[in-house]
Amino acid sequence: QMNLLAADIQKKVQDHPCYSEQAHHHYARMHVAVAPACNIQCNYCNRKYDCSNESRPGVVSEVLTPAQAVKKTLAVAAAIPQMSVLGIAGPGDALANPARTFSVFRELQQRAPDLKLCLSTNGLMLPEYVEQIAAANVDHVTITINCLDPDIGARIYPWIFWDHRRIRGREAAEILIAQQQKGLEMLVARGILVKVNSVMIPGINDEHLKEVSRVVRAKGAFLHNVMPLISDPAHGTFFGLAGQRGPSSEELQALQDACAGDMNMMRHCRQCRADAVGMLGEDRGDEFSMEKVEAME
Ligand code: CLF
Ligand code: SF4
């Protein structure tokens, strides 16, 4: 990233399990599900939620108040020594719930200063909150960017909620894309590490993601994570994508390889839930339900 020295970057990523392939063998992350509302609609969302803003079959996360989230984070950090990162990644959008999100960050900055703070967003409100993100010491931000072309965007996003009204179609995608790109540039200028997540939707944005990868790299994103659309009609409401298939693992890998010429690619993402706890690929969320955390005292 342009304004960061290699040594600074190394320091920021060395104990973050998502930003460093190495670190994920040694460090754990947790999410607190404090952000129930969302300000856009993705055609692939079934509100089962996670950092990638990706739909994944599972049980809906237990939404916590900020106070509960802080309590849970402190309990988990005390119980799991490898815990290095606290992320807010849903179940809706972290920045569509700014009071809740920043209340958790502010409190943890005081009470658990060693924990790295991480945020995942669809990017719509990002430019408005970059200052607050920096002030809260959030060092890692993930933006889910699925396209740069509003005609493609119109097939992925049926609407956004913007300026007190619902906007649809191409116009909605145009605004979302502009906000994501502006947010990315602003974060890079502040020296905050940015990871871009993209959901690969065969026949819709798969070829286009190579261009997305080139552009976000040129703007200073640190890492690109292309994730497969998880298509399981038995579980989800795939609003505008009924019958849409996900990519095969070969297709996914081919696209990741094609992007890798220009960009650091993440290949160890486990598409976590919005309340995941533990090492990547491990979910100990059930051990730390709010009921159990309360009982720990
Ligand atoms: Fe969470 Fe996301 Fe932070 Fe990681 S997850 S907010 S960057 S702490 Fe990681 Fe999970 Fe993949 Fe996300 S493996 S879904 S990339
Ligand atoms: Fe669902 Fe996330 Fe998209 Fe909002 S941003 S509609 S929560 S996938």
UniProtKB/TrEMBL annotation:
* Associated pathway: Cofactor biosynthesis; Fe-Mo cofactor biosynthesis
Q: Does the keyword Transmembrane helix apply?
A: no
Q: What does this protein do?
A: Involved in the biosynthesis of the iron-molybdenum cofactor (FeMo-co or M-cluster) found in the dinitrogenase enzyme of the nitrogenase complex in nitrogen-fixing microorganisms. NifB catalyzes the crucial step of radical SAM-dependent carbide insertion that occurs concomitant with the insertion of a 9th sulfur and the rearrangement/coupling of two [4Fe-4S] clusters into a [8Fe-9S-C] cluster, the precursor to the M-cluster.
Could you say which cofactors this protein requires?
[4Fe-4S] cluster
Q: What protein name does the entry list?
A: FeMo cofactor biosynthesis protein NifB
What gene is it encoded by? Answer: nifB
Please give the organism: Uliginosibacterium paludis
Q: Which UniProt keywords are present, listed alphabetically?
A: 4Fe-4S, Iron, Iron-sulfur, Lyase, Metal-binding, Nitrogen fixation, S-adenosyl-L-methionine
Q: Which residues of the whole protein are included?
A: 26 to 322 of 495
Where does the Radical SAM core domain start and stop, copy by copy? 24-273
Q: Name the family.
A: Belongs to the radical SAM superfamily. NifB family.
